[in-house]
Amino acid sequence: MGLNSGKLDTLRKYFKKIRKPNASNLKVVSLCVLAATTFWTLNALNKDDYTTIVEQPIEFYYDREQYMAVDELPTDLRIEINGNGWDLLRKYFNLNVIPFPIRLDDPSAQDYILTSSLQRALAEQTAPTQLAAILEDTIKLSIDRIEEGELQMMLDTAVNPLVQNFRFASPVEITPAEVTVTGPSSIIEKMEGQIFFTLDQESIDEDYSDSISLSIPQEYRHFLTLEDKNVQVEFEVVEFLEGEKTLFIRKLNFPSTVELVSSDTTVVMEYLVDEREVEALQGLKLEAILNYNERNVEDSTVNVRLNVTPAFIDSVVFIPETFELKYEEEE
Asked: Mean pLDDT lowest for which of 25-34, 211-220, 273-282?
């Protein structure tokens, strides 16, 4: 049999009466615990002879117009201190803690500082707590004297700025040829006396003359400054024309017992030629040379080469480029 609505209302009123006192009791208990904890904490912090490890901020002082750090300098030291709980808590959370000053007269002359040399002065600054120990033996330094250096200007040709089949027809003239750079001595040394630049223009197919903006390589920009940030660049270009010729084969130093597997007497030579030297190429007597003394003994083949190699011919390819050798037994 189910409960009627009257009984249900009675039960609800009963449980409400139970919950209200329980909730009030819980708040009272919580406040008591909080008060007791607060009292215990305050009482504990007022005691002496606690020991803890903290990060002591440090700050370096040196002539920043004459010297520059090339690696990030440390900003704190791990130290062990003991004393009153309130003082330790303040230092642990760096509340109003003044950085310990470290003065360097000639920072480029030293690579490190022995922390033992800081013990007395640091103990005075950490008062009223007592300095028990500095947990690091040394502080590493990497500070260089700021100097001036001369860097030779170099065009970075890793990315070819010229249109396909175009070549430089003259030396690259750069004005000024050198640029003055200022910064830490070790960083200047890493530049190895050169600074590379790229051209603002791509796909160049005519003589070039323009002013180029210089920039320090990304990894050194924080350290170095340039005196001149623009240079004038000039050069001439020339187009190399595609060509194709059929050449007769000439064998050199072949023994009577060695022949070619192929019966071909000619090869096709594909090439590029300086457009200014087309007539000079036509006046050359070109031959495809197979020199037995230059054979590959491992696979019994010999490569084709040209009998002359003038500077105005480029990208020479032979079809075929290799011939197999066959050997006959002597009678």
From this structure: 25-34
